[in-house]
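Why do we care about 3D structure at all? Because function follows from shape, and shape follows, mostly, from sequence. That is the central idea of this module. The next example makes it concrete: a single protein chain, its amino acid sequence, and then its structure expressed as tokens.
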Amino acid sequence: MPLLRYDLGMGGLAEELDKFGSLAQVTIPDVWQQEAVTALREGKDVVVHAPTGAGKTLIFELWSNFGKNRSHAIYTVPTRALANDKLAEWRARGWNVGIATGDLSENLDAPIIVATLETQKSRLIRGEGPGLLVIDEYQMLGDEDRGLNYEIAMAMAPQNTQLLLLSGSVANPHDVVKWLRRLGRDAIHVRTDFRPVPLDEVHSQNLSYHVPSQIKNYWPRLVAKALAEDLGPVLIFAPRRQAAESMASELSRFLPNPNPLTLSQEQRVIVGENLGKMLKTRIAFHHSGLSYAARAGVIEPLAKAGQLRVVVATMGLAAGINFSLRSVALAGESYRRDYIEQPLKADEILQMFGRAGRRGLDESGFVIITANGIRLLDAHAAQLSRAKSVDWNALIGLMAIAADNEANPLREAVRIQERLFTTKPIALGIEESIKHPEVPCNLHTDAERARHVRKRVRQILNSQGEWQNYPEPKEMRLGDIFSQSGNRREEAQPSKPPDTEAHAPAEELPGNNEPEKPEFKLRSILSVSHALEKVGTGHMCVLEENENGKIYGRSITVADRITGQRLIIAKWIRRLINWTSRQAPEEIWGSKLAPLIESKLAQAKTPVVRFKFLAHKVIAEVSLAEMMMRVPVDAHGVALYKPIERDVLPPDCSICSLVPICRQLPTSTGTALLWRRLSLIDQQGIPTLRGRIVSFFQQGDGLAIAAALEDETYPLDDLIYDLANLDAGFRFAGQDNRWAGPLAMACQERFGLQSIPGYLENGVPPKYGAGAEAVVSTIHKNPLAKYEWITDVLGPGDIDRIVIEWRSTLRQIAHAPPLDWARWTELQKRARDILRETESPTLTDLPPLEYHQTKRVDHRLILKRH
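And the structure:
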């Protein structure tokens, strides 16, 4: 509800509007907008929830124009395209505005800077912030790729920087307010559900206009009916580029064109022949494969001016669209992202439906329900939650600052994590360790301590009744092996059994006295029958008996006795002594057979103790003393068969009072331990040279750059262009291996093939794609060569994007802190040299448009029967 006067602290609103007549002619703020501006004037942070088109941006414009003692402001948007739109819009009003989008940095001394949030992240975490930081579409905090940047920027923004958060697709803005208050900020929530252009549903089946038979196929007939019933212009969201282009082509082919659009020669050159023909029929496709000049310089201005009947856009670019049409329809239920088919989420549907209805032109916007059945009830704000991962780059950067200031870097990292948007802070795996830094084990991560305390030390009771660590087993003669008498399991029990399974035995807890040692008596293993069960062949027998007990051996049959005093020699004996005859007279036993058998069995380490002639057979009783067995040998050189054992805590844990705490810690690899394994921090948590490089960049880019710099054989002349591969994805590789190239090889040599969500995939950054380096290198030397690389998969917009991303990486390198590393210094120099050579295109480079010379057209389709 508009008010004629409202006190903003500088007198009446009417008086101030007189000073800014152009703004006064546009609108008078609604109550919720006035409430937000007043809160900002009072120094509060403001979280605004308002539908698309309700006028969220007007809050900032009112603050900027009417605020007393205006301070420096930075207005952040999710995409570079939206930043350029805001820049052009506000400069057209005569405002002094600068821009910072990674690849472009201009007029940074202006009172207002339009930027992408990532460009402001470093200064915010250093404690340097503007008077007002506006975060438009702050629901990006939950984005899988960019959410960490948004979260850390908001968490670390200085207290003297006010925050204005704007969104219409967050279901729990009150939780964001609570979070800001937990950070010590005075934040309020301003909400309106009023949509200036209300939305109505129109089911495609209820469009009754009769369409001529010449118009074929589903979408041309549907759009023809919608246009005929005054629902145009229509914005259709398609799942992929190819679908968007083919649908636009089909519509331009079938729909009558009673009022062709005339493009200037310059516009035709920009959009090309194919799209130019479509635009002539007032139909266009819109996706990231188009050049920025085609999207922002031709298609979007024509759409805003009402000169297009239909625009078919991709769902993936929905967040970057800065224009609305009367009606919106969805041509799919999902879209592809990183090789995975993603179902449309409720807030994504809400964002797309939000483009229906043009403020000041339409009384209502229309959502056309198509065959997929998606309707307004499916579109609603989503519960905002943070991404699951950790912002390595920001945390390691803050740890480096702490280390330089001689503070504890690990403690600083935990402090930052506690400021994140979550009720339960994301653990780094050092939270308990930093509470007790001085410990006997000298381990500094929770996982290491948890694994260490669970790593039981195996000990034996040696021949002198002393506990010692389990020794390396050796091959020993049975005659030299001893057994500890008694029941081993009973003897191994502690003198004080544990109360419950959850607690350690009494002897394992620090401070307890050593338990009583079991009493035992050493005896030869040859006197322990069960120890010999699997040794040798034949039947167990007693070789002798003395005061120490029985000595066991084996009895084996060597021959059978038959009538007539003849022997049938056992088959295995005949083989052993190489005896050819099966039978032999008994009288040659002593002279020939017995000596041969004794000799051969002695060689087999089973010497014969005696032969026994029984009624029907002859047996040999052999000793097992020469047989070998692998057993532990104690510190006194005594070989022990299955000695009495126990499992105890490691020695350092046995004198530490933190054992109960360490037992409860998770053993899973925490983030800090992962940093150590990747050599990003040292044992004390101080970032290494590699870690500092990582902190200068986003996600896994710093890992790749550090790996390349560490390879002294990697030429920097090649690396400077190979950096373009970091964000190239799959499109530039074509049919070749996406993970190819020297930069990928350098990464895999350092990091192997491990995958870490958000940072490494097969050892390289997840968005890596080979082939972009050749494109960027060629275009750097000859900008006109861009058109040689365009294919069905690789559009001019993709090439523009990769050049921008490459320049953005060079800018990060050029403006990063210096390091005592010659290759890093040289890389910075080369980056600065290239940035000085070229300048990024801005909106001023776009062609002059002629749509403003054409009056708005009637989009009702005129169908004539022939």
